[in-house]
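Example complex used in Figure S2.
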Amino acid sequence: MNRDWIAANSHQITAALLQHIQLVGLSLLFGFLIAFPLALLAVRWPRLYGPSLAVTGVMFTIPSLALFILLMPFTGLSMATSLIGLTLYTLLILFRNIVQGLRGVSPIVREAARALGYTPARRLFTVELPIALPVIVAGIRIAAVTIIGMVTVTALIGQGGLGQLFITGFTLSFATPLIIGFVLSVALAVMVDLALVGILYCLTPWQRGVR
Amino acid sequence: MPIDSALPTRGSVCSLQEDTPLTNDHRQRVSAEDRDTHDSSAIVFEGVTKRYDDGTVAVESLDLTLPAGELTALVGPSGCGKTTTLRMINRLETLSDGRLLIGDRDVMSVDATRLRRQIGYVMQHSGLFPHKTIADNIAVVPRLLGWDKQRIRERVAELVELVGLDDTLAQRYPHQLSGGQQQRVGLARALAADPPILLMDEPFAAVDPIVRAHLQEEFLNLQRRVQKTIVMVTHDIDEAMKLGDRVAIFAQGGKLAQFDTPTCLLAAPASEFVVDFIGADRELRRLALERLDSLELDAGLTAPRDEIVARARSYLQQAGSSGIVVLDEARAPLGWLDWDTLKQADDRARIDSLPLKPWRHRLYVHDNLRSALNALISAPGEVMPVLNAQGRYLGVIDQLQLTRRLS
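Predicted assembly (618 residues):
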């Protein structure tokens, strides 16, 4: 570890970290905005579930580097390339968990909501989604941790947040940036995961002491 | 009608009942002419049919009027359309044909969501929202109706008490409650906005028999106070007879086999199907519907516990009885003293020093005749003392009285 290097490059490290967080946050947000309506459709019309799962599943299997290179002719070395790729990776996990969560709501509870006079929208937002929340948040956690690791790959197309530190370390054959990038990336993953667990705990008071 | 002729003739009470203003046709006429508030919650099926897309007919041209303020039990074998009938009332099922009126409103002309908020609904498995506290579960419909917070809080407190829940449970979650408690919450939730109509789909089926009997009893008391128009689906004919002011028996294929009061169903079943459904023990069931205070009790032969043997013996000889009911100072029966014991005893002994035979059951004047028969089977001396609510002796009954009552 070279403390002088850290001090001299603290500005670059902070910028990399912030970009990392930005890429993760945005790709999760876009991923959710696409997966959520898709999941609602798949719950409403179960026939859509299989094909949707297949498409998002295939996207998940494309090697990340290959995907970014495939996108290059269209969006170049831009943040868009990085975001599109990352977003596609979140889709499978988010879609599958939102569907599973909503399907896990007992039909008796759904029927009760109907019989008591809930409108379909109100039932979705005040009954079904809250009950599905633990499964949905579990999906967000997996997606977040996966994406935090994957962002570093996009350094190869000039993005990549903390991934840039890896490239720096690799080109200079110098360990300090590698270690800093690694530690910050892992710390970020752990913190985001813990934060999501904490948020879920606060939002689901009925779950405490169940298990 | 070859089948009907094989059945016992209709009792006078039931043929009389058919002429009272409560029968279907008349009620329909009344509700059409005189639309007062009382009748606004009567439920009228006019040629209602429910056909599913695959062609199965769940309910076939049903004509039925469920009077306001009464509890009607819908009963029948599974697949007879009783649940579909219930669910059409709040439009959980759409009717394929016919009209369904609540008061004079055609349910199909009302917005389904609004309609449902005005009709209480209790489910077999409480169907409580697992993510809401008990208080919030009860408050669901008032919130949908936009009541203010203060009013909701007061109403919830009222209901918690009404259905007999401990108010410390109000902030718990459904999974922390027993099945019986959950069912009470389900009832409270259904009653929250004070709807004139309550629909119940096998409300007591999922709790164990002891809790069920208790809940049924409490529910009956509650209904006496609130006087809602209640429609209850059950597959249990005993429950239907116990709780229903009227019972609608459905046959397979959604046809109504008979609609009548429990007493009349037992006394004058309309078809072989109804007889089979009610069961071979319908005479015994009739006993369950009548209380001891409907009988004239026999004063019986009694003696205070400090009576001496010689005097008791002479009472017995004069009355020609086989024994005597010995009472304590509070006139509660101590036991039965029979002639054989009395015969051998010393003249001057007090009778409570002799071996008395106690009764295994206590029978109160508000008990039904079925409990009376049950108690009589094991009663010494073949008579059973009947007590008032304070436990004091009123008189005795014997099996002959019960048999006479049935015939």
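Residues 209-226 of chain B form the longest helix (18 residues). Residues 2-118+196-289 of chain B form a domain with the Rossmann fold fold (CATH 3.40.50.300).
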